[in-house]
Amino acid sequence: FEQPLPRGAHDDWKELAARTPIPLCADESARSAADVEELVKLGAVRFINIKTMKSGIAEAWAMMQTARQNGLS
After folding, report:
1. Residue 13: which region, alpha, beta or left (left: phi > 0; alpha: psi -120 to 50)?
2. Banded pLDDT at 22 (limits 50, 70, 90)
3. Bridge partner list, 25
4. How many CB atoms lie within 10 A of CB 50?
């Protein structure tokens, strides 16, 4: 389920992930490698939607590397 909650609602992401078996995907909530790290730390998502138009090529690459290092798709 892609971006079921607003950007920045980290506590809500964590709670929703704990309550549903549906895999969650961050889109607007993941605009940087730091965002990806925060979502990983919370155990909130299983997927990240990476778009170069929202982050730029270098940051998108960093996001992809961070996601892969943490077992996200």
Report:
1. alpha
2. very high
3. 2, 47
4. 19
